[in-house]
Amino acid sequence: MADFGFNEHHQNEIINYMRFARSKRLLRLKTIDSCFEELKDSRLVEETFTVDEVREMLDGLQMVVRGEVEMELINTAHTNVLLLRQLFSQAEKFYLRLQSDISELENRELLEQVAEFEKTDFKTTNKMNLETSKPKLAPLNEGGVSELLNKKVGPQPDAFYIHQQDPDIVLSGCMWVHSCSGGENGRSSATHSTQ
Prior knowledge:
Keywords: Coiled coil, Cytoplasm
Family: Belongs to the LZTFL1 family.
Number of helices: 8
Protein name: Leucine zipper transcription factor-like protein 1
InterPro entries: LZTFL1
Helix content: over 70%
Order of helices and strands: HHHHHHHH
Main location: cytoplasm
Shape: elongated
Structural class: mainly alpha
């Protein structure tokens, strides 16, 4: 069992991404298979071929397969950039700066853990998710309550500091922001409720 140290929500996000990546991978593999089938059906009609004819067929097949693989690699890179964009946008809303260690992307041990996760946990979790799929609340989009709160109250460094120290105090930090916007000694009551 591969343990990435994520909470259940983030583990499910990884599973969703892996499903997406696997479906794209299977689609590309089917396209490559069809390239070979097309060559067999259209060009392999004679019983004997000259060396030049075989070379020409293989060169044509190489170009098609190379184009498909290159397109998939480009799409994968662009998809990963879009995923990073989503994560960074969410982090920036809370004034966070995320960092990545590019060298970890080629860490064989970690890659093997991901492969093991895909083989074992991903499949069992996939079955469990199909059986117990419950409707989930969608995150608030732009223009929702969180944006209205940010416009009305603005960034609160103390609430952010509390959030960094203990993620379970997010609700209390939000109550502090709410209490502060209402007047009276909201800060002291929220600080008291977080301890």
